[in-house]
Amino acid sequence: MRTEMTRSLGVAGIVLMVVAAAAPITVVVANFPLILLESGSIGAPLMILAATLILLLFAVGFTWMTPHVPDAGAFYAYVHQGLGRRAGLGTAAVALLSYVLLTVSMTCYLGVQAGNLLALWTGIELPWWLISAVMIAVVGVLAHRRIDLSAAVLGVVLVLEILAVLAIDLGVLASGRELTPVPFSPAEALSGAPGLGLLFAFLGFFGFEATAVFRHEARDPLRTIPRATYVAVLLIGVLYTVSSWLVISGLGAEDALDAAAASPDSVVVALAGDVVAPIMRDVTQVLVVTSMFACMLGFHNIVSRYLFTLGRRGVLPSALGQVHPVHRAPSRASLAVTGITAVIVLVSALAQLDPVVEIYTWYSGLGAIGVIAMMALTALAVLRFGGRRDSGDRSAPGVRSAPGAARASGGRRAGAVTLAATGLGGLGLFVVLGISLANFPLMVGGTAAAIVCAALLVGAFLLGAVAGPTRSAGPPRTGTPVQRRPPARRLQTPRSRWAARTRIRSSPAMGDIDDQA
After folding, report:
1. What average pLDDT score do residues 292-309 get?
2. Cβ distance 171 to 272 under 8 Å?
């Protein structure tokens, strides 16, 4: 009998994993100033609100399709169902490249921030790569064990982060500073370079699709995944919209741009000390380090689940799809992610790349483009899948829906509202993708670097689509195989043939087989 992963995550547990990966305090301290700096306007709240709306529209179709996608491959599994095996495998390759790069970029940035904090408190200066190596080991140990441990660690960090963000917000309100409505003005948001501001606004939401990545560890995936998706997007969107408005108001509408340009990495930390208490500066700096660690752990878990799913389906070595017999976690996939991350960090350090200006900027920029492209492809997959579905027992050619799918969707095509919402969300994502590509040279430091990075993404998609197996195998069966008797040597009447087919369809072993692609 095959060991299954622990189904212990409810809505709250998955939301903790997702929002912790979004790193609220890091977004407030690091992304908010970048939105102001890159866009050249104070329209950050409206940009974040627009990103929230696009993702909510996208989530309508994303959650509708969830019952029909029994795998934990998130974007890969959705594109596979809607656009076919080749597109799905290409998306899987892009997902692995994007999330590995995001993990590495956060690992290197964390080494710098933790090193600065250590030097400030003790005077001891250590190389960033040494601290990053320690963080890789710690994350590897946590991710190797049951998901409950990661959720508990991320939950504690997340609560502290949100309390810190709320403390800054309340401090601005209590300081009596003018709360201007200008940041919500469309004219203000469209001034300067709104495309770059919108791109950085989207960066704060990355990882929200992990609600589907953890489906094998959810108590009731058909209900838990949709609820967790909406809660995560709304929580992140509301928190960032309100906080960005209050940060801008705290800095002053007229002075916010100059303050962000002068010290983008410390302007919010200084604001926290001014409006709350001087000690809040140290507290915020500590929480930025723990927030980056939580983000690193979250991305590590996402990549592990991708490898686990691909291993179960026979796309990658089957060893990656095995569950630890004690911890009931994808420990081998997690170990592979630890090794890959360590190698890339080592090579980057030996190449003497700057951990912030080059590694973080280039790797996270490329990862961000990849994630946005996957979301846009997923929207197309939902539209195609939802538009052609017309029965409760047919998901796609040769693919069986997850148990309960017909009940969850009514066994019908997606409704007009679902398709319209998904279409609008997909349109918004393609617009953001176009803007991102147009500004990509600014993100990675030049046209030549942008071409190389774009070629890596396209190459990863083509390699995944072409190099995949002719027929990807489904995951191993669960339960005890049914020993079928040889067919009886007697005349088969129409009634007896119907009864035989009914027995086979209702066999427990057949019901436990996952999708065959």
Report:
1. 82
2. yes
The amino acid present at 297, given as its one-letter code, is L
Query: To 5 degrees, how large is the angle CA 324–CA 327–CA 332?
Result: 35
Q: If we measure between CA atoms, which residue out of 333, 265, 270 comes closest to residue 302?
A: 333
Query: Exposed, middle or buried: residue 156 (CB in 10 Å: 0-12, 13-18, 19+)?
Result: middle
- Concatenating the DSSP letter of every residue in 475-502 gives PPP-SPPP-PPPPPSS---HHHHHHHHH
Q: What does the block give as tokens for 160?
A: 């502290």
CA distances from 314 to 90, 130, 466, 467, 470 (A): 15, 36, 15, 13, 11
Give me the phi and psi of 267, to 5 degrees please: -65, -40
pTM across the whole model: 0.76
Neighbours of 169 (CB within 10 A): 20
For 30-54, write each residue's pLDDT tens digit. Answer: 778 878 887 788 888 998 999 999 9
Cβ–Cβ < 8 Å for 379, 422? yes
Q: How far apart are CA 76 and CA 215, in angstroms?
A: 14
- How confident is the model at residue 218, as a pLDDT? 61
In angstroms, the CA 103 to CA 364 distance is 9
